[in-house]
Amino acid sequence: MTDPVSEFLDAMGAAGIRPVEPIADKLASGDPVRFRADGDKPGRRNGWAWLHLDGVPAGVFRHYRLGVRTVWRAGSDPRSLSPAERRAIMAQARESEARRKAETLAKQEAAAGVARDLWRAAGRADPAHGYLARKRLPAFGIRQHGDALLVPMVDAGFRLWNVQRVYPNGRKLFLSGGRTEGLFWSHGAFVQDGRPSAGPLVIGEGFATMAAVHHATGHGVVAAMSARNLETVACTMRKLFPSRTLIVAADDDRHLSENIGLQAAQRAAESIGALLATPLPLGPETRSEDSGTDFADIPPAKVAARIAQAGSAGHA
Fold first, then answer.
1. How far apart are CA 151 and CA 162, in angstroms?
2. Are residues 43 and 178 in the same domain?
């Protein structure tokens, strides 16, 4: 007997949609799945699929870049399904998606409550905290709860949804079930010294990276907390600051088979018309097997020089 999950994945493959990572277990759970497919750029998840296994297995799969949308039923040619059958399967998919969104929001709201409680209970961050000491960074815009630094993550309306807990050994944890998409940490991006912030605004991935940029340059900074979230946050900043000079500070993940950090930064900069800064000059050496580099890994004077070069030349 054919496994319906495998049959469904085979149908996706025949339509040119092949997930980069396994999704069979997620499909079997009955929840909708967003995924990156072959040919998608790093950080993009253009694939969507949902599979219902009760009774006669049926489902829907899509790929937004390819413009593919297929309604599927086990043992049937998708072209043989009647309009009524297609509508019924699509209605099930929409109901499942709505239920998943409601469950996700409930978890995010619960995590936001925990984040607010932690933030209120936290005190000033200890400058001698192991992580800050190792990175040689001041405690910009963060607090400490126990031995964990708390990095606040807010939306464009400055609502606190999550905190990243950073431990002395460098371990980093978001709150379970908490929202991360579209959230950011910022320092000096909106107000500095009691006045509206002016000058370039620098956007990048992690807290340490962007704290290093602020420490070296004094510019307002925003951390998206991941490569996947970088373009979304960059677009938010462009909406908030339509005429301000924006610089995207790339992580150089040259040690990976795909330089995810650099590609995400290039894509974000292009999408909002921002300048691009890299911790090291671009060139053949970016394909080396050396470990990756971000702005927290180079001396402050070099950080300032690379950011200034991006501002004067359009790229550094």
1. 9
2. no
